[in-house]
Every structure is written in structure tokens, then in C-alpha cells.
What we know:
Elements (H helix, E strand, L loop, with lengths): L2 E10 L3 H9 L4 H5 L4 E8 L5 E9 L2 E13 L3 E6 L5 E9 L2 E11 L4 H31 L23
Antiparallel strand pairs: 1-7, 2-3, 3-4, 4-5, 5-6, 6-7
Helix pairs in contact: 1-3
Amino acid sequence: xxxxxxxxxxxxxxxxxxxxxxxxxxxxxxxxxxxxxxxxxxxxxxxxxxxxxxxxxxxxxxxxxxxxxxxxxxxxxxxxxxxxxxxxxxxxxxxxxxxxxxxxxxxxxxxxxxxxxxxxxxxxxxxxxxxxxxxxxxxxxxxxxxxxxxxxxxxxxxxxxxxxxxxx
Length: 168
């Protein structure tokens, strides 16, 4: 089984204190970053009170539902979301730099398909996701730079840096 990765990064000329709250605001901040590939984006609470995000990703003729649990939060730095239906993990990493910050958006997953479908997944899925992530990071820069955006409540951020959130 192959381990696949799609990764994109962008320098954003805003402080991490302007960028991370957009990412952590799963109610409206992340919604502003989504491209037309995302449908039916919803925020839920699990039975144990953790935050769950769900959407259907449309890429070409491919459709796939995701149900992401917030797995780890390092306030101002890192947000990790893990699909409860597969091994798919989405990682938002914000690093302070001079004059702004660098944001890395990366997904990782273990390939389940075999044969010809597996070959197509290895070739096209990371590239397709990378293009989507480029658009999302471009939108993130616009949202973080805007003085007119009012963000809602952030995801449940633990008080202790690096504390695990949700199911492990």
C-alpha cells in the first residue's frame, strides 16, 4: 500500500496571529477558503463533544465524502484534521517568518486502490489536490489581509500547546 502526499506552501505577508484564526475558524474562516470543488461543507459536534467537519470533494468525475475530526491543535501554529472514514489527514502548519508567515497545507493518505485505479490515483490525486490547495492558500492570503472579515468562534483550542484533541 503506497503512502501518498499532496503539499502546497505559500508565504503570506501577514502575522500568524492574523492567519491562524482564519484556519482555526471552521465555522466561517475555512468556509471562505474552499474552492468550487468542495460541496456540502458542514460543521458537527460528535457525541463526545469534539468538532467534526464534513464535505464532499468533487474533482473531475471523482466524488468522495470526508468526515474530518479535529485531531490536534497547537494554537497559532498547527491544525491537524483526520478523516474518520479513511487514513486521510489534512495538516495546516503556520510558521512565522520575517514580514509574515509561511503556511503549508498538506494531506497524506494510504492508498487503498489497486491495479490501474491505483496508478491513476498515484499520478493524478496529489497533483489535483495541490492545485486546489494553491487556490485555498491564495484565498487565505486575501482573507487574512482583509480588515473587513469578522471571524466566528475558532475550533476548540486546548489551553496546553500540542495537546491532542478528539479521538486518538
